[in-house]
Amino acid sequence: MKDIDFVRSRFVKHFDGSTGYIYCSPGRINLIGEHTDYNGGFVFPGAINMGITAEIKPNGTDKVRAYSIDLKDYTEFGLNEEDIPSASWAKYIFGVCRELIKRGVEVRGFDTAFAGDVPLGAGMSSSAAIESTYAFALNELFGEGKVDKFELARVGQKTEHNYVGVMCGIMDQFASLFGKKGHLIRLDCRSLEHKYFPFDPHGYKLVLLDTCVKHELASSAYNDRRKSCENVVAVIQKDHPEVEYLRDVDMDMLRSYKDKVSEEDFKRAEYVIEEIQRVLDVSDALEAGDYETVGEKMYETHEGMSMLYEVSCEELDFLNEIAKSCNVTGSRVMGGGFGGCTINLVKNEFYDLFIETAKKEYQAKFGKSPKVYDVVISDGARRIE
Ligand code: GLA
Hints:
alpha+beta, about 20% strand, about 375 residues, binds alpha-D-galactopyranose, 6-stranded mixed beta sheet, 11 helices, 4-stranded antiparallel beta sheet, about 45% helix, globular
């Protein structure tokens, strides 16, 4: 997380010299369960030690005055629907204000400056970190905390849907708000029932390798994937009205609809149904301390995301192959896909070899070095000053 003093010094310099309240929210990793959240399935995220830190002070007007410290960009906007700012980073803050207002919070004007250390476009949910920071803070500052954290997660998710145009699930915002130090969260995305799993895989490290690429059109491709899942559900629902999500469909049922859905939609649904089961298998394996099985499932997820869901890319597949060749226990693309990071579970004794090999070979093939992030599982949204 960015240092409090760093953010405060910029806030004070940029506005009238007085101080406000400081809040922060993290990005997330996800051990397994990708593209399952909007299918009513399970995910296994954890909040991390990188995120967004913001200073916020009500300013007694009806205008928000916002400064992005990292981008050195300033903007002002009102709080009515038609006041949507044009800067894309400001849309997240605006969207959160609007979604809180829709839930009865009387959001008024404020001054804010924020900075982050979640790499952008790396699949670590920098956008959810911004949304959760402001949802959590503005609910305290203007709503006396009346919106609960489940609904705050929906505030972030609806910001994406209504103001950013990404039809995301609930995982990222949930993890950013509910994160707990040293614990992963197994979340049922239909009921929001969740269980914390202590995560301290003795003898292993969890490391992210960032391809440093983000392919164009990732958000429209994301929305297309979601549409495919909904197409399949719509067809099955005609005979089985109880089916609400792909979560409610098993492989036998899906197979019996093979002729009624497109080949592409079929593959997408196949991946999702298998992935939902993998999350449950990983929960059992974690409870038994069986990291070899966790790792196997991670490789299976990669395969599915690459071949069936088709959200991987050359760079991610390349890093996945290197992981295999270096005896890495589990490796897969993390997050929405189309670039960003692989998440790797690696035995301590193979760690150095893996990182060195990945850097060298990736450099030789793509002309740049992947970034390496050692992950620390941390707490969720909070006020820090
Ligand atoms: C993005 C979305 C999440 C989730 C993942 C894929 O991070 O914001 O809701 O769908 O992709 O698992």
